[in-house]
Amino acid sequence: MAVEVKIGVENVARELVVETDQDAEAVSSALSEALTSEGGLFSLTDTKGKVTLVPAAKLAYVEIGRSVSGQVGFRS
């Protein structure tokens, strides 16, 4: 199942939204590794193979959740 990751970057008005095939645990561990390493770079590969790179020092927030794309109608 795809996971949707929303990334807030300092001094940027819009958030980045990446849908990845990685599970939430893998995304979380990649984030932890980027935050703890000096000059860390947070890297995600989306479902189409594009790579998104964000310097860990510029991260404002990261929200990891299930993807809900492709749904039609009302959600309860």
Average per-residue pLDDT, rounded, comes to 89
The number of helices is: 1
What structural class do helix, strand and pairing data support?
alpha+beta
Q: Beta-sheet strand percentage?
A: 35-45%
Global geometry: globular
End-to-end Cα distance = 20 Å
* CATH top level label: Mainly Beta
Structure notes:
This protein is α+β, with helices and mostly antiparallel strands and 76 residues long. The chain has a single domain (3-66), classed as SH3 type barrels (Roll), CATH 2.30.30. The chain is built from one helix and five strands; from the N terminus they run E-E-H-E-E-E. The chain has one helix at residues 24-36, and strands spanning 3-9, 16-20, 41-45, 51-55, 59-66. The chain is globular. The model has no long low-confidence stretch (mean pLDDT 89).
Summarize, please.
With 76 residues, this protein is an alpha+beta fold.
What are the main properties of this structure?
single chain; 76 residues; alpha+beta; SH3 type barrels; three-stranded antiparallel β-sheet; two-stranded antiparallel ribbon; 5 strands
Task: Walk me through the topology.
Layout: E1 3-9, E2 16-20, H1 24-36, E3 41-45, E4 51-55, E5 59-66
Antiparallel strand pairs: 1-2, 1-5, 3-4
